[in-house]
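job 3f2a | input accepted
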Amino acid sequence: MPKTLIFIPMYNCEKQIPRVLSKIDGEVLKYVDEIIVVNNRSTDGSEQAVLDFKAANPEVPVKLLRNRENYNLGGSHKVAFNYAVKNGFDYVIVLHGDDQGDIHDLIPYLKDGTAYKYDSFLGSRFEKGSKLVNYSGFRIFGNHVFNTFMTLMLGRRITDLGSGLNMYRTEYLKSGFYKYFINTLTFNVYLLIYGVYSKSNFKFFPLTWREEDQVSNAKFMKQSMEIFKIVFRYKFNKKKTFAEIPNEYSEREYLSDEIE
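job 3f2a | predicted structure (260 res):
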């Protein structure tokens, strides 16, 4: 069985993080060796909620890491990807701490081996078979427009620009290509486009996606403009977009501490 890590990025998820962790049950642990929750300097009781879960569930192999600075979502990914490479994991599963996605949506593909065939196995809110709960019609329409635009611009079928449940082969990450990417919420867009650029083997799978008590950090218009800029930059200058030239992101140290 491949050695697999679950990485949960967490920022102000005090209400949601216990639900996320409680879903990592015996069925999930058949396929997972370790869970790391990376706390990106939360200002609420998120950290204590994780510690309370750990105390009540010692059989669940979860570690709590605290970033030394707020590295944003992309920076937390870098902390986790570096951890996965350093500690010899074969795969890393990204599961957001806000309880919008459900880890059990991935289990059938771990069970039949499908998920292990790809460099990136990406959860999609808009793949055939996906289910959306309390998701606004406006956002559904906007995402479909963006997915169609991305498909046309990239020449690969795209059904989601970045959800909260994805799985990556660690061998694919070992070169450290991601360290040059911006640390904002568009980090996932760069990951996706790089997958196209590098001709990597990736596939989307359907999700059940809920919006209940979560607070999205995404600002629709701002995110939309940033994505347009990224895609056009890539379309007209692929090599420059992914040139591994030292920048403010690659030169930064992404350090975290384990919290008992």
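job 3f2a | The mean pLDDT is 94.
job 3f2a | closed
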